[in-house]
Amino acid sequence: MAVHYFHCTDGIDLVLDRTGRNVRCAEDLLENACGAAERIMDALPPELDWSAWVVSVQDAGGRQVAVFSFPLRTQRLAA
């Protein structure tokens, strides 16, 4: 297991993950990235435009290992 950090940004604003999460496999990266995006979107007004936001996943050494777009609003409503 390795610790990864799930930072959220739109290129202007940045929400840092200072805690990180233990990740076992690539599927865990996607699951944790979706969770990070959902927490941000749920904490703020639903009418905000999240189309430019991504989750930047970094390993413990600070290297970017993946980037995931925030889910579309229609994807969230269907889930």
Explain how this protein is built:
With 79 residues, this protein is of the alpha+beta class. The protein has one domain. The chain contains two helices and five strands. Strands 1, 2, 3, 4 and 5 form a five-stranded antiparallel β-sheet that branches. A hairpin with a 4-residue loop joins strand 4 and strand 5. The model has no long low-confidence stretch (mean pLDDT 90).
Give, in order, the helices and strands: EEEHEEH
- How many beta-strand segments? 5
Radius of gyration: 12 Å
Q: Report the total helices.
A: 2
Integer count of domains:
1
Proportion in helices: 25-40%
Judged by helices, strands and strand pairing, the structural class is alpha+beta
Note the beta-strand portion: 25-35%
Mean pLDDT: 90
Largest sheet: 5 strands, antiparallel
Tell me the distance between the termini.
28 Å
Low-pLDDT parts are none
